[in-house]
Amino acid sequence: EVVEEELYELETRDVSSSMLSEPAPRRYSEIHKNDYRTPILGLLMEPQHNNELPHPGDILIKTTDGQMHIFKEDEELPKDLNQYLVVKAKDMILPEYLVIYSQTKMYKHDLALYSNNIVMMHVSMRILMHMRIPLPTLGEQKMIIDKNHHLQEKVDCMRRQLELMEEYRQSVMEYSINLK
After folding, report:
1. pTM assigned to the model
2. First CA to last CA across the chain, in angstroms?
């Protein structure tokens, strides 16, 4: 949620085919899906051929829900690889930023708008070619990524603490019950 709030404050850039022009500072709340200042998501990615296997650094987009992740070198190929779009991020967008963006409410909302099938969503390159995305500078993308890592570490630490507290609660209850 904090990352999303920071996204609201970031600048977006104009896109003419594959290049960015001068910045146009705007708040997220002012960005509309037909606004020319927010680039089309599909233009920021290069689709891989259907028969080509993903390479480390490629982005896998699950066609059933649109979730993205970066394919890692030591990762096994998904068994359901045919249910993924395999894309490469172009130079103006960092893959990690794209993955973080795919976890936002804004992205999920846009997917729902562009997906015609109400019962079961199917994400395609056609849908991605219509979606717009706030595009901060590469430096700002790196700051968002760093902030996301920092916050995720805190969340993970809190989860571990919560698990330990739950184990402690259960052991106290078991001990208390066994005494009676």
Report:
1. 0.67
2. 46
Q: Which residues pair with 131 in a beta bridge?
A: none
122 vs 114: CA distance, rounded Å: 10
Torsion from C-alpha of 33, 36, 38, 44, nearest 10 degrees: 110
- With beta carbons less than 8 A apart as the criterion, state whether 89 and 60 touch: no
Taking only the tens place, the pLDDT of each residue in 13-71 is 333 333 333 344 444 444 444 444 456 677 777 777 666 788 888 888 888 888 899 99
In this predicted structure, what is the pLDDT of residue 165?
96
Q: Map the chain to HEC letters.
A: CHHHHHHHHCCEEEEECCEEEEEECCCHHHCCCCCCCCCEHHHHEEECCCCCCCCCCCEEEECCCCCEEECCCCCCCCCCHHHEEEEEECCCCCHHHHHHHCCCHHHHHHHHHHCCCCCCCCCCHHHHCCCECCCCCHHHHHHHHHHHHHHHHHHHHHHHHHHHHHHHHHHHHHHHHHHC
Residue-wise pLDDT tens digits, 74-107: 988 888 888 888 888 888 889 999 999 999 888 8
- Cα–Cα distance measured from residue 164 to residue 180, given in angstroms and rounded to the nearest whole number: 25
Structure tokens of 139? 């430096």
Written as six digits, the tokens of 40 are 């089309």
